[in-house]
Amino acid sequence: MSEDILLDIKRDYVLSRLRDGERIDGRRFDEYRPIEIHTNVISKAEGSALVKIGNTQVVVGIKLQPGEPFADTPDRGVLITNAELVPLASPTFEPGPPDENSVELARVVDRGIRESEAIDLTKLCIEEGSKVWIVFIDIHALDDDGNLMDASALAAIAALLTTTVPAERFGVGEDFPLPVRDLPVSVTSLIVNDHILIDPSRDEVSVGQYFMTITTDQDDNIVAMQKSGSYLLSEEKFYELIDVSIARAREIRQLLKDV
Amino acid sequence: MNEEKPKLIVDGKRLDGRSFDELRPIKIEAGILKRADGSCYIEMGKNKIVAAVYGPREVHPKHLQDPSKAVIRYRYNMAPFSVEERKRPGPDRRSIEISKVSKEALEPVIMKELFPRSGIDIFVEVLQADAGTRTACLNAASVALIDAGVAMRGIVTAVAVAKVDGQLVLDPMKEEDNYGEADVPFAFLIRSGKIESITLLQMDGRMTAEELKKALELAKKGAMEIYAVQRDAIMRKYRSEEEVE
Q1: Chains A and B: how many Cβ contacts under 8 Å?
Q2: What's the CATH number where B96 sits?
Q3: Does the CB of A75 have a partner CB in chain B at under 8 Å?
Q4: What residue in A sits closest to B110 (Cα-Cα)?
Q5: Domain housing B66
Q6: Residue segments in chain B with a per-residue pLDDT below the cut of 50
Q7: How confident is the model at residue A7 (pLDDT cuts 50, 70, 90)?
Q8: Considering the domain boundaries, does residue B5 fall inside one?
Q9: For A249, phi and psi rounded to 5 degrees?
Q10: What is the pLDDT of residues B174-198, one digit of tens each?
């Protein structure tokens, strides 16, 4: 109950500041919190990254192992993305099988990487029809202070960039860097009272879960979109979201170039 | 995979003979189930889907109740025999995601505040699938909600747009979905015969910002045509009820 009252107070505060044209932390509407990318944080993984967006922290580990290809793509590696919203990351997360939020998180991150063809899966074939590399992207939330989506997507591509295919360990040739050929970046916004708040913090989300995630590739193509939350989106806002998401993604992509 | 990709557009027509902005044949019938409070059967191309609405009714388990408004639940489920290769029964990750975004597409349209402490359950069963099931399901669910007499701000109408062979096409069927370059499912709130806002929006594939804007226009055109069929199904249902009386 006390949580509910706190939430009400936060909501009122966020909304009253919005009426003055301000965000509670003083950011511009299209401004991200500070972003940090740390790679190779888990040496047991084939690739890894810890991403912080403000206080939000996510670690992504990449593991690879040989396995069977899908019947319709016998000469391609397989990509599997999973997300765990572990209870350590938020008082609202509960242990147990993945709920709809973690399933959605994993699937939207997966879509950005898959549809931008960031990983050249044709180079991950060991023996056509029987043996290919399975790439596991595991998203582990550490601290949810809002916008786990963008932090996860960014950590996933950063981790992939540093991934080595462990061929020697499995006796199938020499190790080689994972072929990554695009840099998908997802940009999540909160839509409140005709405002678009880029990279919403957890306090801002107290007004409601009215999200839109737009993922673009390095040529500014849109490769994935997800409207998430029970709200009505106007056409004008949709158009604005496309433009602002492309612009922000370009800037974040620069951070990935240093990885 | 691209090597085996069939040509999807031949002489300016699609594989099933449709033009780019043409829907598949649609059939909608409201009130087809006896036990449910509201129901609907839809065929969109080869898709065959049944939707049922139960409620407003008591919520179980009780702790899910909301003292200020109704709780909406949506379950998208595919029959094992609905697709080429048997689908394992029960929810997979895809169905969980579809159920979530579909619930969120309907929630802002249902007048939940009129039904405190109650639950409205929407169940959709895909009996036969041929691309665009999530949109077809929403079209059916919407009619089933109206059939159940649930108060709504308008009607939800959904349709997808795909990019195939570089061309935007309305309401893709299986081949276009499998081999196409992008798929964008939309759902709209239609009120007083006008599209008011977007309630569902997803996308995977590759499109420029320009193409996406064109896709929205194409989807709106398709949605207005589907809306007419939904409306007709509801009118027919109420007319037949009047005759019985």
Answers
A1: 94
A2: 3.30.230.70
A3: no
A4: A230
A5: 16-244
A6: 1-2
A7: confident
A8: no
A9: -60, -40
A10: 999 999 999 999 999 999 999 999 9
